[in-house]
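the two lines:
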Amino acid sequence: MNLIILKENLKRGLDIVERITGKNLTLPILNNVLISVKKNLLKLSTTDLEVGINYWTLTKTEKEGKITVPAKLILSLVNSLPNKKITLEEKDQVLNINCDNYNVKIKGQSPDDFPIIPKTETTDFIEINSIPFYKGISQVVEFSSLNQTKPEISGIYFNLQKNALKIVATDSFRLAEKTLYFKDGMDIKKETSFIIPQRTARELINITSEREDKLKMYLSSSQVLFELSFPEGNQPQIQLVSRLIEGKYPNYQEIIPQKYETQVVVSRDELISQIKTTSLFSGKTNEIKINVNVNKNKMELFAQTPEIGENKSEILVKAEGKNTETSFNFKFLLDGLTNIKSDEVIFGINGIEGPAILKPVGDTSYLYVVMPIKGN
Amino acid sequence: MNLIILKENLKRGLDIVERITGKNLTLPILNNVLISVKKNLLKLSTTDLEVGINYWTLTKTEKEGKITVPAKLILSLVNSLPNKKITLEEKDQVLNINCDNYNVKIKGQSPDDFPIIPKTETTDFIEINSIPFYKGISQVVEFSSLNQTKPEISGIYFNLQKNALKIVATDSFRLAEKTLYFKDGMDIKKETSFIIPQRTARELINITSEREDKLKMYLSSSQVLFELSFPEGNQPQIQLVSRLIEGKYPNYQEIIPQKYETQVVVSRDELISQIKTTSLFSGKTNEIKINVNVNKNKMELFAQTPEIGENKSEILVKAEGKNTETSFNFKFLLDGLTNIKSDEVIFGINGIEGPAILKPVGDTSYLYVVMPIKGN
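prediction for all of em together
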């Protein structure tokens, strides 16, 4: 292997593939990036056996070949080199890197030991705009469950219909649903659902937030492949392959309340700011009380820890329905509110037992359900 | 106690005094700020028994009095309040804070339990410009020893002469000396030296970097007090009182080399950048080799870890004296170089046993001495 590449191009690729490598002690080769060169393309590959990423970039190839080297080391190295041409040459499983006045040798491992990143099992794909896609995933990705005893809710649920894609996550305390509407309809045979690991969703955000583009999605029974092509032509530039999580996602629609005993329309920023102040006194339970006085169009926030102190503050709101006094985990409220982008939010409360809802005013594409802390 | 104050004024004071409070479990009152009001001045005080800080700000006082409350809590609270007038009222050792729609109560502790922050024992002081003073301390403060078995080098050494103030720190592996020259001379009777804790030095940087001003220094046998006045008039605005470290500072002048076997003049940025790249291969010892070829005006950096790889890189320099091959801890070199502000630096090397020196070209006010790693 022998090639010349611009620092910037090598750095961009390594930045993307390095993220899923770690410090794997049982299988150290997973810490490596597989560098392979064919014709005028350099391919970088990494995998953690759950997700795999391939990245291609143009190069001036003198000799084809391949090698694997520690991903974090070569990224740190490339970051520290001057912004010039870099020569990469493999010799006896050592990668020689020359740039300006620098002569670097990195000890490699045989590419034969590197796990195979599976290829697509299907040629059918659908295309999605990358920008709304990554923004949508970002609004739900943090809410999947960390509890591995229920693997199906540890991932992000995708439900693909002809006219919409729903992206959902829940940890059973709260749930977020984002809907991407397709104006022109999707060329799919039937409604399809699948669950991807949270890690995959994070990497998807990372690769699709790079630029506005058509993202191809190839779905098969046990894996999904996402692909972005080079801006010109059909040659893949980035591929992300992930296993799917087995199991049946809970019938989450059932817990989304359609009616609210108390409905409040409130300024998002004002509510966030009052929750933050009140939370200083919420103690270990993170509990803050929300009282709504419908006649006075007033919402009151309250928290107290006897040995520390208390805060009471109020906001003028537009309120309907019944007066209520309900407690919430302030962190869960903030998590929902910071993912809502509108100036005003609808806060629907269903007493101390029923699920509450937060959603933007004038936008049906996002909703966030949160369970109250039950009264004593 | 009852007063009205602008949020911004209260926040600025709390920002400064809160830093030395912590989570002290044995003496919880040290986590508190003492708030006391007299005439139209609010005074905030904190101490960790080594350093104490007083901060005064103007207020509209309704009733004089005092209370202590947890410093980090009240700072977080004030940060989260709207940018408006705040009312502080003490009642039965509870601090009531009202601002806009917020009604906060913070449980206080009796001011009688708060340690007394010592006053000045002398009325003699000298005045120093705050800006060069804090910049000078910043260039040495990180190099004092963490080893508490030699308390005298755990602090920062000040040597005050008629025409200059020297500020020194060392951990016995490296040493930094900053000299502030006084154009007009200082009104002092005799040369004076003292050692302040590193913590004190850090807080001094924090208070003196606020604005250009005359800093008053009151020195007595066991403590030092630094004071900044309100921009108009002589009323103190910030006071920092610190105990001094007992003991005799080592005669550090002896180890500053006056001659170098090898002298190199080199671009600071280029050297930093090559050290960073080379350090990736320095392994656990942090060791990088520096070879100087005087005839070729060339400096070569080299590091190697057999199981990882190596880097060799070179810089064109202006070299004099003998060829050399000396090893250094790369972190120590970077620490010195990042505190030198000139484009070119002088690197004086005295073989594998003698202390080396780094200093700016064309500026005698700073020097950094570093011991090589002895050859095997």
